[in-house]
Amino acid sequence: QLQASGGGLVQAGGSLRLACAASGLTFGNYAMGWYRQAPGKERDLVAAINSGGSTDYADSAKGRFTISRDNAKNTVYLQMNSLKPEDTAVYFCAARWPIISSRSTPDYWGQGTLVTVSS
C-alpha cells in the first residue's frame, strides 16, 4: 500500500513537498516514482529513484523537482520548487521492481494527491 500526502494550493514560484509512505512491500528493493495527471491528459512519469538511489527526471521537472527516499521510513519524497501553473495535476506515487521507466507499468499505485498552482 502506498499513501501519498502533501498536496495543496500554492502560488506560482512556490514550493511543495510530497511524501509517499509504503507498507506491505520490501521498500528498499523497489524503484519508486512520482507520476502526475492533469485534467484531460495522460498520466506521465515525473521522477523516479531506483533502489540504489539513482534518479531520473522528466524534462519538465529537471532543475526544479528532487526525488529522494528514506528507506528507514519506507518513504519517498518529491520536493517541488519554482512551481508553475502547468504543474497543476494529481500526483501519484508508484512502486515497481526492479526499475521504473516511462515504458513500464508500476506494480503498486498510491491514491494520488492534488497539487494546484495558481498564477
Q: How do the helices and strands line up, and which of them pair or pack?
A:
Elements (H helix, E strand, L loop, with lengths): L1 E4 L2 E4 L4 E7 L8 E7 L5 E7 L5 E3 L7 E6 L4 E6 L8 E8 L11 E2 L3 E6 L1
What does this protein look like?
The structure is a single chain. The chain is an all-beta fold and 119 residues long. Helix content is 0%, strand content 50%. It has strands at 2-5, 8-11, 16-22, 31-37, 43-49, 55-57, 65-70, 75-80, 89-96, 108-109, 113-118. Strands 2, 4, 5, 6, 9, 10 and 11 form a seven-stranded mixed beta sheet that branches. It has a four-stranded antiparallel beta sheet with strand order 1-3-8-7, with no helix packed on it. A hairpin with a 5-residue loop joins strand 4 (31-37) and strand 5.
Task: Offer a quick outline of the entry.
By secondary structure, the chain is mainly β. The protein has strands spanning 2-5, 8-11, 16-22, 31-37, 43-49, 55-57, 65-70, 75-80, 89-96, 108-109, 113-118.
Computed structural class: mainly beta
How many DSSP H or I helices?
A: 0
Inertia-based shape: globular
Mean pLDDT: 97
- DSSP E strands, number: 11
Note poorly predicted spans. Answer: none
Distance between the termini: 34 Å
Major sheet description: 7 strands, mixed
Question: Which percent bin holds the helix content?
Answer: under 10%
Give the percentage of residues in beta strands.
over 45%
Order of helices and strands: EEEEEEEEEEE
Radius of gyration: 13 Å
